Amino acid sequence: MLKDSGREKLSDKKIDFPVSGERFINKLFERLVALKVEFKNVDFRYCIFDAAYLRNCRFEECDFTGVRFINSNLAGCSFNGCKFDYASFDKTYVDNDILDVGCPGPENLKLKFARSLRMNYQQIGDAKSANKAIRIELKATEVHLHKAWKSNESYYRKKYKGLDRVKAYGEWLEFKLLDLIWGNGESSWKLCRAVLVVLLFITGVHVIGFGDPSLVKSYVNALLISPQVFLGILKPTAYPTSYITIIFLIRLIMFGFFMSIIIKRFNRR
Question: What residue intervals traverse the membrane (predicted)?
């Protein structure tokens, strides 16, 4: 049976004086306005801020657990000692400093918090802040997946048991592998490094299988032709078809990774 949530709707309100120790739990603030106001130890749990205008406000030790910010403007606001567990942001202008001081402690909550802000910054076209958010999201994801299969913390051992723990280990391995190859889509430098490793591999195979390992010249020549072999420009007749096929597949994968990085960068602008 459905019950009323008891959420109170407050529309077109303005706050122009300091607020301390107040409790605004489960409220819906529509078009709330506050400019250069200090909020101290205020409980905003489970509130919704819709089209709020809170510029240059200062929030000290406030609780924003489960809060949703929608189409709001929090530019210039500072948050010190605030709690943002399960908070979400949608088309909201907020300084990226919040990522330095507002991230929840547990990694699973931190990655959700950073992901929400990353998507929010992408919506408003703030590429710099989106990049900052995704770096925190990826780091938190790595730690979370690692703890999921290895940590002895009660939360992880209760949630990840048996096959779920094995699955988490597989996800962590996949994450680490992709991070090594291309930084999980965020590092063109790591992708270039991976291509260099492939070129060195091609060089080694050519010297050992089709050259003279005792001659330095053989290594130099193999290194010089490795880019051509990798790009498919040169196909030595001595190479087996299976080897050429493997190089072709690697080239396609690397090219796909490269295009993905480029598309992601442009999509955030």
Answer: 191-211, 243-263
